[in-house]
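Incident log, structure service

09:12 report received: a user says their structure output differs between two submissions of the same chain.
09:20 pulled the input from the user's history:
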Amino acid sequence: MTTYDDRASLTDLTATVERVRSSVEGVIEGKPEVVRLSLTVLLAEGHLLIEDVPGVGKTMLAKALARSIDCSVRRIQFTPDLLPSDITGVSIWDQQRRDFEFKPGAIFAQIVIGDEINRASPKTQSALLESMEERQVTIDGQTYELPSPFMVVATQNPVEMEGTYPLPEAQRDRFMARVSIGYPSAEAELQMLDVHGGVNPLDDLQPVAHAHDIVKLVDAVRGVHVADPVRRYAVDLVAATRTHPDLRLGASPRATLHLLRAAKASAALSGREYALPDDVQALAVAVLAHRLLPTAQAQLNRRTAEQVVQEILQRTPVPQQQSGMGLGHGTQGYGQQPPRRLG
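09:34 re-ran on a clean worker, output below:
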């Protein structure tokens, strides 16, 4: 496993992240925070749900991220007639061998792009549950491991759009974060007309990192230190969603784990070897809001899950960094060792 004492290796990994970031931002203009969140989810071993209205670049973002990494990529176009076996694979009888042969489905790739995932039936959507959580597929009693790294980047239109099915709660809970791209600024849209008007920028996009580089990055993120008060802060935020009067379904323990992993990845992207409450705060809405179900009264009052999470962030006390024993195990509060920049 990569450790933070391996300075040369960390320098290489930091450079790798910057190459991927620059590559994606060359396609998605004016949305650096969206690109950063996508990289955060990738390094935290999570899955990303991109939700927005048609035409704002959801699929473009997923493709740009996939093409920037030299790994296996498969795209699944979710339609009402898509079958679960199209995703997971199927066992077919081989006449010559007189035995069943497994034909892998589209899920057997390192980055899987699920385009308009909520246009398929809930039964088909459920075919992703095992693979997203356990990184394996079970067919006819036989279990097949999925490659590493493994990430599902799914796009969906808002549930108000015609021809969509709402994602089941169990499916939403397996996505580490949800992001909305939003409309570009006037300047970014003008630049988009120059860049995208004549050619497709994806055509010239070349891989800037290898799959094994991403595996090393993931190992480095696992080594990020999280002090006990920061862990407690994440737990308090998630627990508050379970008792909030405007919510009929709060966040799960899996959400707490995802929030902590994302905070560690965010710290690594910022060049720190330890996570701060700021990392947790910055990711709380993206990680928690899509898992929450508002009550009927809250919906009548036009209260969104995002607003509830923002309210919880304002009400939950933030741990303060202290010297000495403080919040961490070392002399500088949050970190195990005196703070130093990575790379």
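09:41 both user submissions now match this output. Likely a transient worker issue. Closing.
09:42 reviewer note: The chain is about 40% helix and 15% strand. The radius of gyration is 21 Å.
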